[in-house]
Amino acid sequence: MVAPSVIGVAGRVGSGKSSLATLLSEQSGWAVVRFSDYLKHLAGERGIIPDRESLQRLGVECIEAGWGQFCTAVLEFAGWRPGDSVIVEGIRHPEAVGALNAVVAPGRVFLVFLAADDVVIQARIRIRDGSGVELQKIESHPSDGGVGERLHAVTDIVLDANRPLPALAGEVWRWHGVRTRYRCELPRFLHVVAGQRQSSNTTVVA
Questions:
Q1: Angle at 34 between CA 107 and CA 131, to 5 degrees
Q2: What average pLDDT does this structure show over 175-190?
Q3: In terms of domain of life, where is this protein from (predicted)?
Q4: First vs last Cα of the chain: how many Å apart?
Q5: Rounded Cα distance, 70 and 188, in Å
Q6: Which domains does the chain have, with CATH numbers?
Q7: Angstrom distances, CA of residue 170 to CA of 45, 148, 165
Q8: At what angle do helices 165-182 and 17-28 cross, to 10 degrees?
């Protein structure tokens, strides 16, 4: 039996996670599973307006109920079945990676982190959500509190979110293919920046 491929896409708000996940799905034919879609579904069931604060509260509630239950519900809501390959977008906590790995075994999440600086993110948030949204307030909430060093500890590859989307997708498939082909762990965490590929301990020649 061939283990399913599971690619997780993580990053700070406004880093381009949704766009990259959508492109990877189009290129592979794999479904996209989004934590936000499941939370919006819950909000609809309860008659709650699905604004950011409401979704964050629901996220905390789901986390407190248990990561295994939360991740299983998110996958099943999107129609995932054991053995399916899938793109998972919106991972914000290392605990979610562990729970997903348990659910999708013998597959394992290949986690991609999109890195972007505050200036770029603030500009994208203003375009998408308006000027009244405060980045610090968003990222200080418990539902978003893992998108930083804690999540980096379980990240396989870090990509510069300023690069063109097709180039980012190409790097994901490149390094996912390397790990799959040789059935090995990539050095954590691998940085790919504008044609220069290096990890914190290892320089990788293209």
A1: 140
A2: 63
A3: Bacteria
A4: 31
A5: 26
A6: 6-33+85-199 (3.40.50.300)
A7: 38, 24, 9
A8: 60
